[in-house]
What does this fold into?
Amino acid sequence: MAFKRLESSDFVLSSDAISSTLWSNQLTTLTAFFSSSAQIAGSSGKFYLTAYASSSLGSPEFDIAYGNSQGSGSLAYNSTVTHVSPTSTVYGQYQDLVLGDENTDFAFGALTATEFFALSFERARYKESLLPGSLTLTLRSSSATLTLTDNSRIVTIPQYVGTNRVYQLVSGSNGAVNTGVNSGHTSNSGSYGWLLPDIGTILLNPRALAAPLANGGLTFLYSASSATVTPDISPNFSLFTAINGGASFTLNSNETISSNYIFIRARSSEYNYSENPSFISGSTGEIIFNSFINTPRTYITTVGLYNDTNELLAVAKLSRPLPKDFTKEALIRVKLDF
Amino acid sequence: MGYLDNSVVTVDAILTTKGRQLLAQGNFNITQFALADDEIDYTLYNPNHPSGSAYYGEAIENMPLLEAIPQETQMMKYKLITLPRGTAKLPILDLGYTSIILKQGANLSITPQTLNYLGGNTFETSGYTATISDVRLFNAFEGIGIETQQAQALNQTVTLGTSVAKSVVGSTINLKATTVNTLFGSNTQLSATLTIEGRDSGARITIPVIVTKIN
It folds into this structure.
């Protein structure tokens, strides 16, 4: 017999959380950022700016968008209709996506804001979610720098806004919060933003970034004037410049992989002969070595997993041949990922 | 620092083409396994090694193995089987043919027999699985004589149009060569391989199949 039925106890289902760097170049920290002038000048440039890890562009890492409830920061779609522009579209878009209420504004710590910067990561980069506690984002404006992380390591129960887990962005790095001043928040401009791990997004609070250094801010300058038209002074480009100046962005992805483990058990009396043509000599089926008649030895190289109709559904190869004879039992754990 | 647990060998499995197809259909259900020794050349085993019995398998045991291939017809070619200790001859299949050459539209029935199995030559109770590597070569490719639910389920599988393998189960395998001229193009014959496997013994044989054009 070549086939052996598996028992229910041979199957084990396991879910493992896998985290890895977010960036396409597989580096832990992204230190250089590039943009595409064609993208900025194109129709999508009114809404967001795409950041890349390489001067040759390649696959995008994240998009930067500025949202403003009053439509400031970009030209109105139509000069006869005020307060309706790409930035108000972005604001409403995230209001709907994150808050689920068009009448509610964003609360960054103690500050209720009607504007934000959104860093929206490519789905292929963050896989299932962003990993809270892995963020280190350094921003630079003029000669000042500010390093941000999330507060996931000091909160016992995540805050929920709508259906989204929310962690406040605070001063610190790699999940460690600078709690000495205002629990990592600014003095009077709230937190620095939100980490929304389940939708792969970071919202930054422009008011906190623009606050004076003494209040924990960065004196970050950006133009929220509705007359802004040129890309080099758009809010998106200003934030891109600050991120590029900081030259340090660390963030990990998180993914839960469900694996089926199947335990393959070959008893001592089983699988000691082979249908391999080199196991026999001649055309009559005689075993190649006389010593193999009473002490046969085989080498397991492949495990095949079958259904009831003997159809081969999955196959696994060992890294090296596993000897098997009447004095040995084999236990092989086959991992099948979905 | 701790030592890795090496009491269990862990390997990663990949889905075969058939496995992906059944997964998409919601019929993915692993119920049994088999072991194989594909890639092993037992003539490398040296029972006369001057350094003693610990070295008999030296040339085999350290060899690197190739990665798994998703085509189910290319894997698990040589299964390991369970036989009583002291077995001197292994089961082998006798089809009565070492190759098959059929003209367009011709019929052929194959009734495999297993030699050296269960004390002699026998027709296996569970029948034989026949796999044609390109189902387009035949207008009819069917197994008869095994009426189990599993065998019937496999025999009723319909494969349309493309160059894919098809498996059927039976104690007798009936073939009818294709009558479709367009398959030949400018060629005068089509070729494929037919693999027969004993469902009880695991014995296996592969022979070439050629269909020749007649007009």
